[in-house]
Amino acid sequence: xxxxxxxxxxxxxxxxxxxxxxxxxxxxxxxxxxxxxxxxxxxxxxxxxxxxxxxxxxxxxxxxxxxxxxxxxxxxxxxxxxxxxxxxxxxxxxxxxxxxxxxxxxxxxxxxxxxxxxxxxxxxxxxxxxxxxxxxxxxxxxxxxxxxxxxxxxxxxxxxxxxxxxxxxxxxxxxxxxxxxxxxxxxxxxxxxxxxxxxxxxxxxxxxxxxxxxxxxxxxxxxxxxxxxxxxxxxxxxxxxxxxxxxxxxxxxxxxxxxxxxxxxxxxxxxxxxxxxxxxxxxxxxxxxxxxxxxxxxxxxxxxxxxxxxxxxxxxxxxxxxxxxxxxxxxxxxxxxxxxxxxxxxxxxxxxxxxxxxxxxxxxxxxxxxxxxxxxxxxxxxxxxxxxxxxxxxxxxxxxxxxxxxxxxxxxxxxxxxxxxxxxxxxxxxxxxxxxxxxxxxxxxxxxxxxxxxxxxxxxxxxxxxxxxxxxxxxxxxxxxxxxxxxxxxxxxxx
Amino acid sequence: xxxxxxxxxxxxxxxxxxxxxxxxxxxxxxxxxxxxxxxxxxxxxxxxxxxxxxxxxxxxxxxxxxxxxxxxxxxxxxxxxxxxxxxxxxxxxxxxxxxxxxxxxxxxxxxxxxxxxxxxxxx
Lengths: 495, 123
What we know:
- The complex is a heterodimer of chains A (495) and B (123).
- Chain A has 495 residues and is mainly alpha-helical.
- Helices cover 79% and strands 2% of the residues of chain A.
- Chain A has a domain at 291-495.
- Chain A contains 22 helices and two strands.
- With 123 residues, chain B is mainly alpha-helical.
- Chain B has a single domain, classed as Helix Hairpins, CATH 1.10.287.
- Helices cover 73% and strands 0% of the residues of chain B.
- Chain B contains five helices and no strands.
- Chains A and B meet through helix 6 and helix 7 of A and helix 2, helix 3, helix 4 and helix 5 of B.
């Protein structure tokens, strides 16, 4: 066991990567579903083990193919990558059982096995982005996860899923290309692609103009992928028209992994002093984040579709995460990482529950959801809890990390940022109220299906994530402590 | 002098901006994908050009070979080309599906059709 455990950093990526062609070869939806659940469980177990290892004894370096870094590709798991990998794998574990009914209803039984294979490819790409310590390898995994996401979004029932997918493909590819231009510039001035090797070589440079250009390209490129306001144009349609299981998985993980990549480049490669002290990147991030808090959350209130509302809410919530990053203090980064995890869980639960409603009612427009509190009481109540976490009500996961963010802003001597966080939470109250009003204070339309919940394979994992939202709210210390260690790992290796 | 010796970079930057402009300015989805292809190709030049050293040979171990070109950029760009081909193929496949579903590949007509559907749903 212990000898196998030393290969976990590579297996984390390789197991889902091999599962994908295996599922295609089996050509069976049921077998694909079972394999994807087993793989999700295996990656979750591995990532939790790695998280425990990094917490106990620091970073793990894995030389792929036994080529020592910096010549070979290094997989490097530290507290930050282990935390994000654990989030991705846990969300995959929750979505895997859910995905069968979603795929059967929205993609059709003939193509179900391809759906599971693509989910595995996407999982592999996201975990690869987190695990790798090589800048170009990261680009390859970014494209693996992105290409599979484009296809998964295009599988949505409506034809607008196709336009959402091509829009995301165009913007996502521009983003990935910008990232690779930035990495190319860094490679030209240093001659290395290994993150740990890049940092000291960049620190020793005198002529910084290519590094400035690289910082700009990488910030804009990854900003597109993480939907940093105002680069979020692809996100609302993509989340609204994608199949429910895809929306839940992608909303909870893809943007979060991109945020992790930005943190990794800023702190572990370019160095906090260069990015935040010599250049005004922190101020720009704070300004854009605060714009996201207000503009995206206000736009969410005006939506007529629950999934679309949740998508705009995601843009706003990403603002809280990048706000903590923009503060560039240990406390800010801790709050940012904690909110990354807590929002991932909350938004994953919310999209899964919205998908369960779409399954029973045929859609998530508010006319269709009228009176859903009476026809699907359990699902509706759970969605209200996930909504409370988006607001940041005490007792839910969202509260702990927002509280940490407010404390970090005050500690950094910027009380107006703390005020912006608090005031913008009122907008979240308004958009969550839209759902409450529609679900509990409106009569169900006459053609409404009778009282009953969605199938158990959809409801049970969604409720499990909702329970996790409450658990992480009542017992916030594990996430905050892991986030604190992760922030330390990111800051400690910077110059 | 410097401008002339860096002609590969000028070419790369020109293609980069031209590709990006096409992606932003064109209305036709196929043309947008062509622009995306040009943008990606510019990166291939950006990576590969500096690998060549003046007077350098192929990167082989042989007697008398002192100066050789850097092979790593070529390896990286082979991977990037594969990614570019996959992206273009996927993009074109989605455009074919869009053409089947909407009867057009012009972005403004697609957006108008979607806006019409939305207006009908709201009524």
